[in-house]
Amino acid sequence: MLPALHVAASSVLKNVHSQVTPHFYMALEGFSDADIETLHGTLDKLGRSYKFTRLMPPDLNTSELASLHGSHTTYWRLLLPRLIDEDRLLYIDTDTLTTIDLGELLSFDLQGNPLAANLHGQAHTALDGKFLLQHGVPPMNPLFNAGVLLIDVREWNRRKITEQCLSFCQKYGAELPSHDQTVLNIVLCGSTATLPLKFNHLISPDTRYEQLDPCVMHFVASPKPWDLFSGLIHPYAKMYRRELRGTMIWSAHKKRYLELSNYRRVRKIFRGYARTFANRYFRS
What CATH number matches the domain at 57-284, 1.10.606.20, 3.30.450.20, 3.40.250.10, 3.90.550.10? Predict the structure, then answer.
């Protein structure tokens, strides 16, 4: 995930207004000191001011939680308002590429809600729909993708959202279809403001290429645009590579075809490759 981290962070810094100094709080489980130094190199190349804090692993019991690709880092989202002493914070996944100034979210109206997110779809049609309905989410209730979340820290803590989420995880952690995203959609049902689509534009490998207005491009499903052979099938792989060329990880990324771990990932997500290839070249 090093290429994704470099692109996600540098694209945010590149596009933010010059009068805004973003403070990056990063959950970097498994990253070495050398990895962090390289990331600083990428950000420093832009010549923009920023602050950086590496978050330490929180006190979180993960024994009953289903992992995501062998990691439990995704559940850190539930604890961020405890870990970060700010009035407002923006959580953003690393599988993103930002081409919009996120500074306007500093004054975005959450209408008294603890959270704003990109609401889309309905509970009864979601992949985790059955589980959501079983736990009180109305069938027609809109859901949100948790890849980009704007959080009012004070309101979140006032309502004890973290405590509610952790309590739910203790009871149903091993059953969660979509990990912490499922928990958040249940606990925050009816308490979420709508974040404009431009701040979380979902792009799958099956998406047809189009010139997008400035937005946060969120690459969902696999393969991702940095994966092996993605240039053959992912609509935004070329655009992503252009962003990578400006990072300190580019020279290492060019050698990815020589690393066995990347071929293991191809095997792991082979169904995604097959589905995307079929849709790309054989759909009507």
Answer: 3.90.550.10
